[in-house]
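queue> holo job accepted (nicotinamide-adenine-dinucleotide)
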Amino acid sequence: MKILVTGGAGFIGSAVVRQAVAEGHSVVNLDALTYAACLANVASVADNPLYAFEQADICDRAAVDRILAQHAPDAIMHLAAESHVDRSIDGPGTFIQTNITGTYTLLEAARSYWDAQGKPDTFRFHHISTDEVYGSLGAEGQFTEDTPYDPRSPYSASKAASDHLVRAWAETYGLPVVLTNCSNNYGPYHFPEKLIPVVILNALHGKPIPVYGKGENVRDWLYVEDHADALLTVLTRGQLGRSYNIGGENEARNIDLVMMICALLDQHRPDAAPHADLITYVADRPGHDLRYAIDPTRISTELGWRPSVTLEEGLAQTVAWYLDNPDWWQPLLDRDGVGARLGKA
Ligand code: NAD
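queue> job finished
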């Protein structure tokens, strides 16, 4: 299969690109290379004849049209987005532009391309979204694919809008789509401003490890390589028009997650002071959702997919990867505003 992956220089997109090429798919990586992108994430496939890169903005219709016509993909996996909740609170404009207008532009380009091809029913537009569209849970319950949308941050509202657009293009124009909504990803190549890298990198630098509120917010953690596997499973075997929730079956309170990372760092650096001494509680994020949890029934029963690693295993691999790869993360800290944001998690 030839797959056009948008956002393939980002964290999850690059895992999809690496895995798709490893499985023998041809991949065209369309990415605007924003501050969050890193082509080093796909260096392992850069010279592979199955891989091509196109620098373009999904809001640029002419560029997207040209790339579709030139590469003639069998499917589009749409991951390009502005993805950092804190940045969406500080400046929502780019989230509206990329996540909503960009998705609309891509849908229109995909519809024209699919029309021009004679509307093959084998074509797939796979939209990758978040469980944050469902809002916040209390202590009980899990998100199913039928949970009503209740987004509460500019980021999640923009992703919810994009999900609605994709469903509308399926209903109105018959575009063959599948959608996925996943929980928090973690793993190698995670951009340094996100929670788990912030904890690891601040601890390595002896800086305070910031924890929002009392650290009681609960997230489900999905190892990024498991997620890439789930996405390719849904793309190739998912039922047309359907949404699938993807979770890691790994719920943890933020403070427990941070303590687990500190314990792993203590094992690697036994001579350093206990890393948990650096934990510092900071004012909570506005509108901070208390708990997200995924009911994995649909993807596990229909497609037989389940995560392969526990949080303990995935975190151990992730901490070891950051310790082994300072050449990857050090230059990213010097990018605009990124190092300064390490104070927040
Ligand atoms: P990321 O921020 O690491 O990467 C996003 C990529 O998209 C970057 O390479 C960036 O250059 C590119 N991009 C941004 N704007 C673009 C534009 N206008 N045109 C073309 N490319 C553009 O994001 P991620 O964490 O890999 O997330 C990928 C997708 O998964 C997003 O749609 C996100 O909403 C969704 N998601 C992420 C998580 C998570 O935990 N990271 C959880 C749920 C859903």
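queue> The two ends are 39 Å apart (CA to CA).
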